[in-house]
UniProtKB/TrEMBL annotation:
InterPro entries on file: DNA-bd_dom_put_sf, MerR-type_HTH_dom, MerR_fam
Record-level Gene Ontology MF annotations: DNA binding; DNA-binding transcription factor activity
Annotated protein name in UniProt: MerR family transcriptional regulator
PANTHER family: HTH-TYPE TRANSCRIPTIONAL REGULATOR TNRA, REDOX-CYCLING DRUG-SENSING TRANSCRIPTIONAL ACTIVATOR SOXR
Signal peptide: none
Location of the HTH merR-type domain: 13-81
Originating species: Bacillus weihaiensis
UniProt superkingdom: Bacteria
Swiss-Prot/TrEMBL keywords: DNA-binding, Repressor, Transcription, Transcription regulation
Amino acid sequence: MSQPDLSYKDKKVISIGTVSELTGLTLRQIRYYEERKLIAPYRNESGTRKYSFTDIETLMDIADKREDGVQTTEILKELRLKEKKRESEMDVKKKMLQGQLNAQFKQGRGRS
């Protein structure tokens, strides 16, 4: 299964070992955050985890919050709220674009 066209930050191409090196997190910590649903790596046909630069940023944010004593359940709530907000913003953008297209299409039809 291939990944859809994504920005370079969202392409899941980085191995867990490299993520560990970049973040300073242990493999166990990274897997634990996955178990807690804080991060969702891509898995290829053989089950190998692949991460994106966005995932690395999320992991660093999680690690900072954990150092400050924030529980994983609270971090998960925050991540879900951010995702809902992002989805809502995308819905608004889609509706605005559709409205612009509809207005343009109607305007163009009226000229004929």
